[in-house]
Amino acid sequence: MKQELLTKIRRELHQIPELGFKEYKTQQYLLDYINQLPQEALTVETWRTGIFVKVKGNVGQKTIGYRADIDGLPLTEETGYDFQSTHDGRMHACGHDFHMTIALGALTRLAQNPADDDVIFLFQPAEEGPGGAEPMLQSEAMDRHRPDVIFGLHVAPELPVGSVSSKPGLLFANTSELFIDFKGVGGHAAFPHLTHDMVVTASAFVSHLQQIVARRVDPLDSAVITIGKIEAGTVQNIIAQAARLEGTIRTLSPEAMERVKGEIEKVARGYEIANDCDIHIDYGANYHQVFNDAEQVQRFEQLVQETEYQYREANMAMTGEDFGYMVKEIPGFMFWLGVDSEAGLHQSTLKPKEEALAVGVHIVEKTLREL
Ligand SMILES: CC(=O)N[C@@H](CCC[C@H](N)C(=O)O)C(=O)O
């Protein structure tokens, strides 16, 4: 598939980022594209805002799955692109526009010339939250299309174009969203002693969370707690009666995740007593770690080495991926695709290099044909 067409698709998708399970325009765009491909070998089935596309193989001994996530992030784009997001406060800042384009590129090649094995493409909603992989995996549609092996990719801004990277075993962390609501007594800014200030309480709590990481988790079993959003108060001279923290917990083991949650709850009980307030904790979406199948990764490395591209051994990362649920049930793996951007994932200035699209299509197609 020509670079110009890949670039066109990527730019069109880049302009319509949508949040998890609201990917209506994205789904329609994908369906319109898929419908103009040769249909002889294809079976297409929608699932919520996602899509399953099966390409019947010439022999069909086994089924290989390829998953591409399709949602965007709640972030205002600042790339200065002339094909910038047309959706206010939404951006493809995690490369899912790349993931979808590469999937369409590989699908095009297979629709024109099917592989020996059956191939199933999963266009999956809601990776950034609340999590589409687990319900997609449990769906009836998945019973009809369940692959024997599955893989997926993620763009890597820090790697050069032409390189890919993976590793056997643990690649991505266990994650849990974290929402904490504080309710106390507000009042006049001049009489703090008559109130229980939720700005002061919530700020102290944010700092205390870092103590949990530093002093309650084995340093050899890393954890991260990030609070990405704080909301509190109404105006500068009223002491806030409510505050809300929104964040995420990352750990390298499911056990450490349980430990961190237990510690957060203990601290919350202490803060309720010390600050005369109510604290409510909600863990939102939780993602299982991505644990790559060693045999599949070894085969993937061989396949990449047969190309002009470079394979590098990856390190574990504290990123999360609901694809972890898929490889928990189906042997498979995820790999990083180098896209060489100065700005990183989840930044408003992320600019992955479009030459990486063709690299992705080549490697995904080869893997689908030869894994
Ligand atoms: C690859 C990537 O960036 N994934 C996201 C997954 C987010 C999961 C969930 N919303 C959370 O924040 O815990 C990531 O932030 O790692």
UniProtKB/TrEMBL annotation:
GO-annotated biological processes: diaminopimelate biosynthetic process; lysine biosynthetic process via diaminopimelate
Residue positions binding Mn(2+): C94, H96, E128, H154, H346
Catalytic reactions on record: N-acetyl-(2S,6S)-2,6-diaminopimelate + H2O = (2S,6S)-2,6-diaminopimelate + acetate
Active site positions, chain numbering: D69, E128
InterPro entries in the record: AcetylDAP_deacetylase (IPR023905), Amidohydrolase (IPR017439), Bact_exopeptidase_dim_dom (IPR036264), Peptidase_M20 (IPR002933), Peptidase_M20_dimer (IPR011650)
Required cofactor(s): Mn(2+)
Pathway annotation: Amino-acid biosynthesis; L-lysine biosynthesis via DAP pathway; LL-2,6-diaminopimelate from (S)-tetrahydrodipicolinate (acetylase route): step 3/3
GO MF term (any one): N-acetyldiaminopimelate deacetylase activity
EC nos: 3.5.1.47
Pfam family, one: M20_dimer
Keywords: Amino-acid biosynthesis, Diaminopimelate biosynthesis, Hydrolase, Lysine biosynthesis, Manganese, Metal-binding
Cofactor info, note text: The Mn(2+) ion enhances activity.
Peptidase M20 dimerisation domain segment(s): 180-269
Family: Belongs to the peptidase M20A family. N-acetyldiaminopimelate deacetylase subfamily.
UniProt xrefs under PANTHER family: N-ACETYLDIAMINOPIMELATE DEACETYLASE, PEPTIDASE M20 FAMILY MEMBER
Biological role: Catalyzes the conversion of N-acetyl-diaminopimelate to diaminopimelate and acetate.
Protein name: N-acetyldiaminopimelate deacetylase
Organism for this UniProt entry: Halobacillus trueperi
Lineage: Bacteria, Bacillati, Bacillota, Bacilli, Bacillales
